[in-house]
Amino acid sequence: MKTMSNISSAYAVPRQGTADKIFEESDYFSVNSGGLISASSVKWIWSSFDGLSVTQLYEALRLRESIFIVEQDVPYVDMDGKDMHCMHLMGYAQREMVAYMRIVPLDLFERGYFSLGRVVVRADLRGTGIGRELVRKGMGYLDKIRNGRPIKISSQLYLKDFYSSFGFVAEGEPYIEDRIPHIAMVRAN
User: CA-CA distance, 155 to 74, in Å (whole number)?
Assistant: First the structure.
């Protein structure tokens, strides 16, 4: 499996403007007592597309690319024109983006549905609960704005049980999307 090496935080570009206010010095050390990053140590930031700093946009695209294109070895067009209409949730630990998702507004993914997508956690942090917290926060946001309208996602098939734990129900048969088995899943309430 291909991987993309991480750039050391020592080489991080200094944030300018309002982004300086996002982090406190203590965020460099947001780890648990064992020295490992956990879900409880992640700082979560919501932003519209227009509110993203250049650095945040770069970090989100870099994280998405490292998993969806490089690790999964799937050449596809990640920048699909939807990002500018979405809300973006970014998770930071030690001043580095470690998790990301976008909330897709009503009718943009499929008519009659909200959606969430590009759900990603840095490869070395899977199994820490960060992905579960990421989706929990995304679902909380959607539950506040959707007024009972359903949410539909295109889940990679191996994540079917994960999304089922959030109330999603598989719809139809599995299908291949970008060379990877997927299944449509819907959460009605």
Answer: 15
Residue 116 sits in a domain of what CATH number?
A: 3.40.630.30
User: Do residues 162 and 72 lie in contact, with contact meaning Cβ atoms separated by under 8 Å?
Assistant: no
pLDDT digits (tens, 9 = 90+) for 112-153: 999 999 999 999 999 999 999 999 999 999 999 999 999 999
Written as one letter, the residue type at 58 is: Y
Rg (CA), the chain: 17
What pTM was computed for the model? 0.80
Q: Residue 177 belongs to what domain range?
A: 25-187
Residue 135 gets which letter from DSSP?
H
Q: What is the DSSP letter of 115?
A: E
- Whether 49 is covered by a domain: the verdict is yes
Give 120's contacts (C-beta < 8 A, 6+ positions apart).
63, 64, 67, 68, 99, 100, 101
